[in-house]
Specification:
Distance between the termini: 110 Å
Low-confidence stretches: none
Number of helices: 4
Helix content: over 70%
Strand content: under 5%
Mean pLDDT: 81
Radius of gyration: 35 Å
């Protein structure tokens, strides 16, 4: 058979709704698999240094009570 005889058969197969549906389904599965392989979790948010410095400079109420008891 020559290419001219195969061409109409190939076109009919490619136009088939089953083939088109299968190609679409496979594209969806492949894109989902690619997403899963490349997925990375976002790093947790860290507290800013300003909050840590401010809390270190102001003494807590418990330490003030302990220092008053020690003075008496």
């Amino acid at each position: 058979m020559k290419l001219n005889e195969y061409l109409p058969i190939i076109l009919e197969v490619l136009k088939s709704p089953i083939v088109i549906g299968t190609v679409i389904a496979m594209l969806i599965v492949i894109s989902f698999a690619k997403y899963v392989c490349n997925y990375t979790k976002k790093p947790p948010k860290t507290k800013s240094k300003k909050n840590k410095v401010a809390s270190a400079q102001t003494p807590s109420p418990a330490t003030e009570e302990n220092s008053e008891a020690a003075e008496e």
